[in-house]
Each structure stands twice: as C-alpha cells, then as structure tokens.
Amino acid sequence: MTAATAPAGTATCTGTTTPTQTAWLKAADGWDAKNGKMLASDGKLALVQRSDNAHVDVEGNAFMSFRFQGGIPTTAKVTEATLHVEHHEEDGFSSTALDWQVGGGSLTSPTTLGSTRATVLATTREATVEWDVSQWITDGARANDLKLVVRNTDSYGKKAKVDSVYLIVRYAP
Ligand SMILES: [Ca+2]
Asked: Ligand 1 mean position to 105 CA, how many Å?
C-alpha cells in the first residue's frame, strides 16, 4: 500500500497516527448457574480455553457466564469487539432455545447490554461462531468488564456443549 500524498497547497494533518491494536483474550473464568460453581475452582476453565473437542455442558434451563482476560486501557476507543463461541448442541435441542447475551457486572448476575438468538448446531456441525458486539462494547472499560452469557432454555434438558470461547478487541489506545 502506498501512502496518500496531500495535494500541493492543502493543509496536512500533523497529528501522530495511533495504530489500532488487536487483543485476543481467552476466557479467564466462568460461572455455571446449574451447579453454582466457578469454572476455575471447579477445574473446568481449561475446557473452554482450547479448541480440542473437550466441552463444558450448559444444562437445560440454566446459563453459563464467562469473563475474559482484561488489560485494555479503560479509556481506549474500541473499534471492533467480537465474541467467538465454538459449540454444538445435543440432538433434539430446540432451535429456539439457545440465546447469547453480552453485558457486564458479576458472573453470577451479569447485566445485559445486548442479546442474540444463536443458531443451534448439531453434533456433527460444531463450528466457531462469531458475534459482533461492537455496538455495545465501545471502550476499554466495557471490554475489560465484558460478560458473555450462554443461556439454554431447552425444556427437555438437552445440553449446549461449548468447546471454546474467546474475545477479540480492536482498539485505539
Ligand atoms: Ca475445549
């Protein structure tokens, strides 16, 4: 790519250019509302930190919440924030029973800024699905505080199986 050249006679911007930085943030802990335990203390955090077909189970009529590694300057302007959830659901899982929510606050009772009805994926169709949450996560403080909720409302108790979750944040410091 060649740098644009200002036409002669026009003013040029003399401010320094701040390059956008990208942070790839692993899950730092989670909360299983079904058994009331934190994933780290329950020995399950590693399950969602790697794409290895080892899963955590989100039980029917329950939710699991996740937080992520922070470290983004709190006043940084976030230009893009995307959540990545590698998952599948047990056979028979209702197509309208999987919801994702993004917000902040505590893992056990997170606030909700936005939500989406997630696509249910059969066991043989496991995939990493990207959810763009940029409209809600606009600065470093919100990115550092971000909570993802995977909510399972399947009335027959089918499980949602999460292989990995991570957050990618692009920001200008
Ligand atoms: Ca895994």
From this structure: 25
Ion ligand 1 — residues with CB < 5 Å: 47, 50, 52, 54, 163
Q: How do residues 113-158 score in pLDDT, each as one tens digit?
A: 999 999 999 999 999 999 999 999 999 999 999 999 999 999 999 9
Domain extents for the chain?
A: 21-172
Report the separation in Å between the CA atom of 120 and the middle of ligand 1, taken as the mean of its atom positions.
Answer: 18
Cα 56 to averaged position of ligand 1 atoms, centre (Å): 8
**Which strand (E) or helix (H) includes residue 142?**
helix 140-145
CATH 2.60.120.680 applies to domain 21-172: yes
Burial track 139-155 (b if 16+ CB lie within 10 A, e otherwise) = ebbbbbbbbbbbbbebe
Return the ∠ at Cα 108 (arms to 132 and 129), rounded to 5°: 25
What is the spatial distance between Cα 115 and Cα 153, in angstroms, rounded to a whole number?
Answer: 14
**How many residues does the structure list for the chain?**
173
**Closest Cα to residue 28, out of 66, 54, 56, 61?**
66
Residue 5 has pLDDT above 60, yes or no: no
57 C-alpha to ligand 1 centroid (Å): 11
pTM for this one? 0.89
Look at residue 107 and tell me whether its pLDDT is greater than 60: yes
